[in-house]
Amino acid sequence: MVREISAGGVVVRQEDGAWWMAAIEPPEAPDSATAASGSARKARSTTKTVLCLPKGLVDPGEKALDAALREVREETGIIATPVTKLADIKYVYVRSWGDGERVFKIVTFYLLRYESGRIDNISEEMRVEVARAKWVRLEDAPKLLAYRGEKQMAKQALEYLLSHAEV
What we know:
six-stranded mixed β-sheet; globular; 38% strand; Nucleoside Triphosphate Pyrophosphohydrolase; alpha+beta; 6 strands; 5 helices
C-alpha cells in the first residue's frame, strides 16, 4: 500500500463578531451519464457544492507546517500565520486515476489565522485543483464540508477559538 503525507489548514478570521473559515471548491468532475444524456447543465445546477479545506502533499524535505502554509497560499490566495496544530487525520482511499492503488493517507491540519491577501486570488494553473475559494462561517463549516475528518477539524478549530480568547 502506498503512503501519502499531506498538510492543510483551517484558516480563520474574525469579522462582525463571527469567525469565518477559508474553504475551497474543487473543479466539477464531468459526469459522463449526464453529459451523454445532454442534461449536464441542468444536473450541474442541482448538484450540491463540494467544500474542502486547503491541503496538499508535503514535498520532500519540507516540514508539514510549511506545506500547510504553502498549500493555503496556493489554493486560496491568502497568507496565514500558525496558531496551533489541530490533529492528524488518517484514512485509506483507492486512487480513481492511473493504477487504482490503495493509499494510506495522513493529513496534518493546523489552525491558521488570516494575515493578508484576497480569497480566491489564485493562479490560472491552480484552477485545475480549485474552482473557487471562499469564506464560510466557521460554525456552519461542519455541515458544509464534504469529508468527515475535515468536519472534525472545523469543530476542533471552533472549540479552540472559543476557549482561547487571545486568538
